Amino acid sequence: MGFVLITGASGGIGQAIARQLAEEGYNLYLHYNHNKKGIEELLNSINHFQGEYIPVQGDLSKVSDYERIVNHIFSLDAIVHNGGQSHYGLLTDLDPQTTEELLNVHVSAPLLLTKLLLPKMVQKRHGNIVVISSIWGQIGGSFEVAYSTVKGAQLSFVKALSKEVALNGIRVNAIAPGAVETKMVNHLQSDELESLKEEIPMGRLGRPEEIAKGVSFLLSEQSSYITGQVLSINGGWYT
User: Fold this and answer.
1) How far is Cα 85 from Cα 92, in angstroms, rounded to an integer?
2) Is 78 buried (19+), middle (13-18) or exposed (0-12) by CB count in 10 A?
3) Residue 57 burial (CB count, 10 A)
4) Which residues does 145 contact at the CB level (< 8 Å), separation at least 6?
5) Residue 172: its pLDDT value, please?
6) Which of 8, 39, 38 is nearest to 130 (CA)?
7) Dmax of the chain from CA atoms?
8) CA-CA distance, 78 to 66, in Å (whole number)?
9) Annotated active-site residue in 26, 66, 147, 225
10) pTM across the whole model
11) What is the pLDDT along the chain (239 residues), one digit of tens a residue?
12) Which class for 43: exposed (0-12), middle (13-18), buried (19 or more C-beta within 10 A)?
């Protein structure tokens, strides 16, 4: 099935993607930053699938660390850009360091990682890139201006790169999850969470496994004529 790099593999959505792809027979490069325990737990849960699973540490908020990740990558067939860092607050309270980190994690690192790893897929004339963006990159979110900005940039990256590499046999797509049951919604109070669910036509949050199924589809031959697209997995919250 080939080798897939998953950035942010230690988080809720990242772990779900890794488990899904391991079950399907993929070999995985599992990127993480601080959450080594999460990666160890993930490895314990997928080792029985008997693939090759390689942990790769790197801090995507530092623009230079992407090169360290690249040095651990050999054969490569797909990239899942799932690394993320949330931010909630007024734009007027945004500090320069947080701004730089958000841009590095969501824009600079995926751009530069892809730049250096793309030749491995061009050489094979086959490959896949999937970016885990957000509903806020599509519609914008109050109190999430900076986060919405970088997530919107990811969607532009997908649309542009997909045209550039299509004739090389490489497809580039995005998934835009809505509200998902992960730590990223932990800042919400119980009443705020219930109010959020009422806004969503399906009346509930998404599950990480549902995002993982979307990644599986976009990596598969079932989506062989799909590129430059944004798959919205949001329970009908935005259509």
Assistant:
1) 19
2) buried
3) 17
4) 91, 94
5) 99
6) 8
7) 52
8) 16
9) 147
10) 0.96
11) 799 999 999 999 999 999 999 999 999 999 999 999 999 999 999 999 999 999 999 999 997 888 889 999 999 999 999 999 888 899 999 999 999 999 999 999 999 999 999 999 999 999 999 999 999 999 999 999 999 999 999 999 999 999 999 999 999 999 999 999 987 777 778 888 898 999 999 999 999 999 999 999 999 999 999 999 999 999 999 98
12) middle
Domains of the chain, CATH where assigned? 3-233 (3.40.50.720)
Which structure tokens are listed for 65?
A: 């660390």
Question: What 3-state class would DSSP assign to 180?
Answer: strand
Q: Which residue is it, tokens 């772990």?
A: 15
147 in catalytic set: yes
Of 132, 161, 139, residue with least CA distance to 228: 161
Query: Among 206, 143, 158, 170, which residue's Cα sits nearest to residue 78?
Result: 170
Which tokens is 96 given?
Answer: 């320069």
Residue 131 main-chain phi, psi, to 5 deg: -110, 125
Q: Which residues of 24-33 are buried (b: 16+ CB within 10 A; e: fewer)?
A: eebbbbbbbb
Contact 122, 170 (CB under 8 A): yes
Tell me the sheet residues that pair with 173: 130
